Amino acid sequence: MQNFTWHNPTELIFGKDTVKELAPRLKADGIKGVLLVFGGKGTFKSGAYAQATEMLNSAGISFSEVNDVKSNPLVGKVREGIQRVKAGGIDAIMPVGGGSVFDTAKAIAAGSLYSGDVWDFYSGKAKMTKALPIYGILTASASSSEVNNISVITNPETEDKISMSGPAIYPRVSVIDPSFQFTLPEKQTIYGGVDIIAHILERVLDGNEECELVDSQSYALIRTMMNVIPELIENPKDYDLRADYALAGAMAHSGFLSIGRNPRGDFSSHKLGHSISLLFGAAHGATLSVIFPAWSRYLYEDNPVPFARLGEEVFDIFDGSDEEKALEAIEALEDFFRDIKAPTTLRELGVKENDIERLADNACKLLPYGVLKELEPEDVLEIYKLAY
Questions:
Q1: How many CB atoms lie within 10 A of CB 365?
Q2: Would you state the pLDDT for residue 114?
Q3: Disulfide engineering: 342 pairs with which of 56, 62, 193, 289, CB 3.0-4.6 Å?
Q4: Do residues 167 and 219 both lie within one domain?
Q5: 172 and 189 housed in the same domain
Q6: 146-162 as b/e, with b when 16 or more CB fall inside 10 Å?
Q7: What CA–CA distance (Å, rounded) separates 156 from 264?
Q8: Is the distance from CB of 247 to CB of 270 less than 8 angstroms?
């Protein structure tokens, strides 16, 4: 296990009817006005909007709104939010939604205290060091954005989907009421679950075999998610299932599963998936169910041990060589994705064969990346071909 320092400053309030517990936190911090950031109809359908605004009104805290945040959130919406904040009367940002809403809120929080364009933080032209405080209400689990210091934003003009990170954009407080997720569309439950599983896999498949304790937690979370997702498809309003799903979602990319690793995991599949979302508008989780098996197939022969271990710990695969167990594990993972009706080929996402080189060119803009193997342009192209 590598030396590590880990600190996650987000206060997590978890459970039924917990939105009201934000009021004393806001008052204690002297917050008088907030910017509500949310998506669309789902925020109202879940009841989260009503509870958030009731809490703010009862606490005497004013609010304005930026809505219609989309999946794969756009820098244009971030700029709109920054303009609202700079108009005055706002001390904090309050996302009410899923990862895209939280990522947008973080970008607004940082950009509101910066004199230049917020995209500078994503392109590397400027370093983000400060942000307005963030108090969030989660309505869809997937990215762990409610408990981490990462924001991913899309810029369609430059054809980039890039992340920024820094201590200033950890939410100060996040509320997770699993009952807000009762009304999620089935596809969102499926794709959010795939994203959660991918975040965990990106740790245990990084080639680091020295983190037994943390890896054991990771395998347990994967098994839990593989049990919970099919059950939620059948019983979407089961509170205990939603609670397990939401807690796994918060743990997956909070930083805890990265402790003792150097670096924090292999996020090649996310990088490759971002280009698919950017260029073809595919849901983030759908890109991961396609890319993760392809990435795994490309690498397992030279790196069989982590994939074989996945087979043993998650799929009860014990017979054969490491290479044989590894391939069987990859096939079992892909079968699971098919079973929950997640796509497993680029064709299912509307990508044509003659689009593959364009995808590869876009994904190569962010090279180098990769831990199990640092990818070169030819590797990126071959993985997309395997995914087709």
A1: 12
A2: 98
A3: 289
A4: no
A5: no
A6: bbbbbbbbbbeeeebbb
A7: 28
A8: no
Widest pairwise Cα distance in the chain: 65
CATH of the domain at 338: 1.20.1090.10
Range of the domain at 191: 185-387
What's the predicted TM-score (pTM) here? 0.96
Question: What percentage of residues in the chain have a pLDDT greater than 90?
Answer: 96
Number of domains in the chain: 2
Q: Per-residue pLDDT tens for 46-69?
A: 999 999 999 999 999 999 999 999
pLDDT tens for 147-177 read 999 999 999 999 999 999 999 999 999 999 9
My answer on whether 168 and 316 are in the same domain is: no
CATH code where residue 23 lies: 3.40.50.1970
Q: Are 102 and 95 in contact (CB under 8 A)?
A: yes
Domain boundary, last residue among 130, 150, 180:
180
Q: Are 197 and 296 a contacting pair, CB within 8 Å?
A: no
Whole-angstrom distance, CA of residue 204 vs CA of residue 212: 10
Specify whether 208 is located in the same domain as 309: yes
* Sign of the C-alpha dihedral computed for residues 47, 48, 52 and 58 taken in this order: positive
Residue 72, pLDDT above cutoff 90: yes
Q: How far is 167 from 149, CA to CA, in rounded Å?
A: 6
* C-alpha pair distances (Å), 275 with each of 136, 236, 286: 28, 31, 12
Residue 276 falls within a domain, yes or no? yes
What pLDDT, on the 0 to 100 scale, is given for residue 262?
73
Residue 2 included in any domain: no
First to last CA, the chain: 37
1 part of a folded domain: no
CA distance 279 to 133: 32
Q: Which long-range contacts (CB under 8 A, 24 or more apart) does 363-367 make?
A: 363/271, 363/272, 363/274, 363/275, 365/160, 366/162, 366/271
Beta-carbon contacts of 359 under 8 Å, excluding residues fewer than 6 positions away, are 275, 276, 279, 351, 384
Looking at the fold, whether 157 and 211 belong to one and the same domain comes out as no
Given 134, 157, 180, the domain boundary residue is 180
- Residue range 310-339: average pLDDT? 98
Residue 263: predicted pLDDT:
79
In this structure, is residue 4 part of a structural domain?
Answer: no
